[in-house]
Specification:
The complex is a heterodimer of chains A (about 250) and B (about 200). Chain A folds into 2 domains: about 45 residues, no CATH class; about 140 residues, Four Helix Bundle (Hemerythrin (Met), subunit A). Helices cover about 70% and strands about 0% of the residues of chain A. Chain A has 9 helices and no strands. Chain B has 2 domains: about 90 residues, Orthogonal Bundle (Rna Polymerase Sigma Factor, Chain: A), CATH 1.10.1740.10; about 80 residues, Orthogonal Bundle (Arc Repressor Mutant, subunit A), CATH 1.10.10. Chain B is elongated, with a radius of gyration of 19 Å.
């Protein structure tokens, strides 16, 4: 009697225990038909094992690439970058406003009352308030640290947006690209000037606010750039024109 | 990022292949939206995925569509790739699941509940004297296998899954997997030319 099909299959796959294997081999020794079957099954296995991977036609990647560039099913969609940058801007601005609004009013210069003494001498401002001076310096340092943190937050958002914008800037026409570049240069100059002013007067609130405003302006411009690139990639000329019209050269 | 001018064939047997230390940088690039990085990933794994898809689906044309779907799905899902396996293994698992979903869906549309070799005709062993003289390419022969047998055969004999894994993937008993693979081998034996 022939072994059942599963036993023969397992024999070919070397999946039988020793006793079962011995039983099959005893049968094969006397059965030409089953011996031939085993050889044929082994040949199928050998040829199957020799199969090579098949390269897909080149059009497959072409279609994938087109789909990616048209639809941008990105692992991190562009809108997530914009939302992240926007949240950074909002969070940082709120944080800075909190810091500046919670700062106590700078103490008025101390002027010694001289009427009581009748003397002509007037005490120098704060000369008799060393503790207040220390507090002011500490407060200034705290504000400076907060501003540095805010600047770092803005810079990270700017860097992220710049990477996106620079990666796809080729999608913009030369005139628009030149306008954007000029606007960015103007804003960068304002940032440099604000930084210089802050360096001279670290406690200057106008200088601090000017710096933060410049960062916000730069982020807004980069966001518009990315949005413009997206509209152009989608072939939405009307949307692209609407955005581009807002990108007037800044003086 | 430069691409290799000549694509090297992937090594066989076709157990999941790890790419190595460049995985992390490649995945990071893709997650940042770098299509060039994704193309590199595609070039590294497309042949293996296409082969799997074509053989399971039984058609190179279906295989092309499946490869596109698999890689686009991978691009979307790479954001959630955790790195607990190599990206090649992760991609391969995605491909196996996608291909099997496809054949199940196709079978459901065709109204069949099960596919067996019996429905496709005889699979009786062919005696040496009756072996067909014409030689058929093994790939074409695999395409001609009935769907249920083809999937079990491709997963076991071509891709290297054991019967327990095949059974789990196909939702069948282990014994059924063995039976399907045997029947597929018998069918191929009848279609391929014998060496004398």
């Amino acid at each position: 009697m022939h072994p059942n099909e599963i036993a023969l299959n397992d024999y070919v796959d070397a999946a039988l225990d020793p006793a079962e294997r011995a039983h099959v081999e005893r049968h094969l020794a006397g059965c030409v038909e089953c011996r031939q079957l085993v050889e044929d099954l082994r040949e199928v296995r050998r040829q199957t094992a020799a199969l090579q991977p098949m390269e897909p036609p080149s059009r497959v990647w072409t279609q994938i690439d087109r789909a990616l560039r048209q639809n941008r099913p990105s692992p991190r969609p562009i809108w997530q970058w914009l939302a992240a940058a926007a949240m950074l801007v909002i969070g940082t601005a709120v944080g800075v406003r909190y810091v500046t609004s919670s700062r106590p009013a700078a103490p008025a210069p101390a002027v010694a009352a001289t009427a009581a003494t009748g003397g002509g001498a007037v005490a120098a401002p704060g000369s008799n308030d060393s503790a207040d001076n220390t507090d002011n310096r500490e407060l200034a340092k705290s504000v400076e640290d907060e501003l540095l943190q805010a600047e770092q937050h803005y810079q990270r958002a700017i860097t992220g947006l710049e990477q996106i914008a620079n990666a796809d800037k080729g999608a913009l026409d030369p005139h628009t690209a030149a306008t954007l570049q000029k606007n960015l240069s103007v804003i960068d100059q304002a940032i440099s000037e604000s930084r210089a002013a802050l360096k001279a007067q670290p406690a200057s609130e106008p200088a601090q606010q000017s710096l933060l405003d410049s960062f916000k302006t730069k982020i807004a411009l980069l966001q518009e750039t990315v949005a413009l690139i997206n509209e152009m990639r989608k072939g939405n000329d009307a949307g692209a024109a609407r955005i581009a019209s807002g990108l007037k050269p800044k003086s | 990022m430069t691409l290799p001018k000549q694509r090297q064939p992937l090594p066989f047997p076709s157990k999941p292949v790890t790419v190595g230390g460049g995985d992390a940088a490649l995945v990071a690039g893709v997650q940042a939206g770098d299509v060039d990085a994704f193309e590199t990933l595609y070039r590294q794994h497309a042949a293996r995925i296409y082969s799997l898809a074509s053989r399971i689906a039984g058609s190179p044309d279906e295989g092309e569509d499946l490869v596109q779907e698999i890689f686009l799905q991978a691009y979307r899902k790479l954001g959630s790739f955790k790195g607990d396996a190599s990206v090649g293994t992760w991609l391969y698992r995605l491909a196996v699941n996608h291909c099997l979903d496809f054949v199940r869906s196709r079978r459901a549309k065709m109204g069949r509940v099960t596919d067996t070799l019996d429905a496709a005709g005889s699979f009786e062993p062919v005696s040496p004297r009756e072996t067909p003289l014409a030689r058929l390419d093994l790939e074409r022969a695999i395409e001609q296998l009935p769907p249920g047998c083809r999937e079990a055969f491709v997963l076991h004999d071509v891709e290297g899954f054991d019967h327990k894994e095949v059974a789990r993937l196909l939702g069948i008993a282990e014994g059924t997997s063995k039976s399907q693979v045997f029947k597929a081998r018998m069918k191929l034996r009848g279609l391929l030319a014998r060496r004398t």
